[in-house]
Design a protein that fits this description.
- The protein has 215 residues and is of the alpha/beta class.
- It has one domain: Aldolase class I (TIM Barrel, Alpha-Beta Barrel), CATH 3.20.20.70.
- It is built from eight helices and eight strands, in the order βαβαβαβαββαβαβαα.
- It has helices at 16-25, 48-57, 75-80, 96-105, 150-165, 179-188, 197-200, 205-213, and strands at 3-6, 31-36, 62-67, 85-89, 109-114, 132-136, 170-174, 192-195.
- The radius of gyration is 16 Å and the shape is globular.
- The termini are close together.
- The structure holds D-xylitol-5-phosphate and zinc ion.
- Zinc ion binds next to strand 2.
- D-xylitol-5-phosphate (DX5) binds next to strand 2, strand 8 and helix 7.
């Protein structure tokens, strides 16, 4: 069983209630919430009022992925939205250890996200302190991009690092996930798959989430 975190970025925002109800009824383990600021990434998505609306409707944990500069400024606001997991990018945190502590102190699980070109070895001295690592398998900013194959090597390296440390961190992979790329990253050692376009553009999203869960 693979945990699936469908990315709400690919939902129909004119029918958000309907799409969240679909996710509630599905085997999705959590809901992936992509926040973009137009500075760290070349796109803007949505902010706290929309996350609160999703949170009121969702019956599953929120997995909030912050593609924003200086995410430490927003720890309490993310917590107040009811998020279970707060993902911050390695590339945006000069004082990553402190940010991870702040997320834990706020009562959330802390996840660190790596861009495709950031090597896994950068996590050597934080891996014992995080609940999850999110490996980007596309350059962040847009849904429906093509999976970057170097991710498979990174998943294997990260799995080795977690095992060597006896660490508890789960491995999540985000970007270009479908049944084929999903199978490859699960074989490489991933625990959680984010999927946006592949789920929401499918004729039967609930069945597609079930198919990904079975990988
Ligand atoms: C990309 C986002 C992803 C994206 C995934 O910046 O972080 O979560 O929505 O979408 P797909 O699965 O369509 O690549
Ligand atoms: Zn994401």
């Amino acid at each position: 069983m693979t945990k699936i975190s469908p990315s709400v970025l690919s939902a129909d925002f004119g029918n958000l209630d309907r799409d969240i109800e679909m996710l509630n009824a599905s085997q999705a383990a959590m809901l992936h919430i992509d926040v973009m600021d137009g500075v760290f990434v070349p796109n803007i998505s949505f902010g706290f009022p929309v996350i609160q609306a999703i949170s009121r409707k969702a019956t599953k944990p929120l997995d909030v992925h912050l593609m924003i500069v200086d995410p430490a400024r927003y720890v309490s606001q993310v917590r107040d939205c009811g998020a279970e997991i707060m993902n911050v990018h390695f590339e945006t945190c000069t004082h990553l250890n402190r940010v991870v502590q702040q997320i834990h102190d706020a009562g959330m699980k802390a996840a660190v996200t790596l861009n495709p070109a950031t090597p896994v070895f950068m996590l050597e001295d934080i891996i014992d302190d995080v609940d999850m690592v999110l490996l980007m398998s596309v350059n962040p900013g847009f849904a429906a991009q093509k999976f970057i194959p170097v991710t498979l090597k990174k998943v294997r390296q990260l799995r080795e690092m977690i095992t060597a440390h006896g660490a508890k961190a789960e491995i999540e992979v985000d970007g270009g996930i479908n049944l084929e790329t999903g199978r490859q990253v699960v074989e490489a050692g991933a625990d959680i798959l984010v999927s946006g376009n592949f789920v929401f553009k499918a004729p039967d999203p609930i069945q597609t989430i079930a198919d990904l869960t079975a990988l």
